[in-house]
Amino acid sequence: MIKISRALISVSDKTNILDLATILQKFKIEIISTGGTATLLKKNNIKVTEVSNYTKFPEMLDGRVKTLHPKIYGGILAKKDDPKHLETLKENSIPQIDLVIVNLYPFEATINNPKCNLELAIENIDIGGPTMIRAAAKNYKSTVILTDPSTYDNFSKELKKNKGKIGESYRFKLAQNAFSHTAHYDEAISKYLSRTDKKIIFPKTLNQSLNKKMDMRYGENPHQKAAFYVEPQIQNGALANFKQIQGKELSFNNLNDSDTAWECVKLFSEPTCVIVKHANPCGVCSAKTIKNAYKGAFSTDPTSSFGGIISINKEMDAETAKLIMSQFVEVIIAPSYSKAALNIFKTKVNIRLLQVEINILKNNLDFKKISGGWLVQTSDNHILNINKCKVVTKLKPSNKQLEDLNFAWEVSRHVKSNAIIFCKDKKTLGVGAGQMSRVDSTRIAAIKAENLEISLIDSVVASDAFFPFRDGIDILASYGAKCVIQPGGSIKDDEVIKAANEQGLIMVFTDIRHFKH
After folding, report:
1. In a 10 Å sphere around its CB, with 0-12 CB exposed, 13-18 middle and 19+ buried, how is residue 245 labelled?
2. From 188, 306, 331, 395, which residue has the greatest number of CB atoms within 10 Å?
3. pTM of the model as a whole
4. Are 392 and 342 in a shared domain?
5. CATH number, domain at 257?
6. What was the pLDDT predicted at 283?
């Protein structure tokens, strides 16, 4: 235990600081503070010594230099159990500082302001604050560091319980939090400065600070442990911004599958439903109503939809909720829910209901973990203009066929490669996902439709990458497909186009692929 006799307070965020300072005063703890904080404390009748009076050295350079002084850092960094340290303090008339309460200039809030420029951002880079935090955290055996207003209440309880003293295990925990705080702060600065050069997409050093949102029951399998971490500033529309309205605790697989469902359904402006199982869409449909969109998506593959993730891009209504209640579902995601729909879902309290704002995310980076490193790429957010795609066959698509081709293409980007999607009337008919052979994906998609007696006659097909040979074209044509959209780019394109013409197919090239591994 160490007794708290002297505290230094320098906070940008003054939330709860008066309550804490009042408690410190009750324990007769001397308070030292910087200008703005000192003024606030004095106005509220809390005795305080300003740093400039304490160090006998004025603030200067428009406030850039306030606490950078040996009397501050000597008092913070001295070891209480080291006689030489204590003798040095005595020789230089430096009192010990037992408690440091610091939070930093609001750099992130500043750069998030659309009016922020580089000069303003630079002025909001804190220098003395991080240095004090690091010094106090390094010397946690002799000094206590507080950086987060949310911790003040717990600290006050510890102080009262121990009659003005703080134990080492608690000090160490606060030190861990402090270094995480400064690491995140430096990362935000580094990211911002890197972004000022628009030519740099991948900086030499890539820092990523994440905050734990929740522990999970287990990972992909019960023997694996897992937790969910989120970015400090999550874009509106990201799944991580979900609000859980009801239901059991979310699992690792729930969130992984939900992300696919949500990112897919956001691509469509018409009422649309996407059902995902094991990270692949097993049914997608756009219709005039959410009810019909759900019915169309579910009919693609009712078997795979069992225990799946359902996402919709419009408000969940009572009619759709009633239909969903007849199947087993793990998670439902929607931008909003009607009161009537919520009342229906309340009868099955285990169904997880997530509410997320509809918004297409801005350009960001996509990460994939491999052993010993990360693969980093820009997100696959290419928007296809179907009217500018190249028709490479003799037959040309109608406007309705173009709409279906565009629909199928958007679905294909969220299906694991090799991906083949049969569609008609903006509804998936068969989905072939994740096969090593594109021919096998084609066969699987057709077999799944055939097993449900779903006709593929006059359907359109999307392939996420090019057909390397004509065999895939011959197979999909044999099931009655009339149009196919694919990137093109194979050395066998001429052979593939010839096959399409022979089979009476329409073929459209996008010149872009959507591998998803």
Report:
1. middle
2. 331
3. 0.80
4. no
5. 3.40.140.20
6. 96
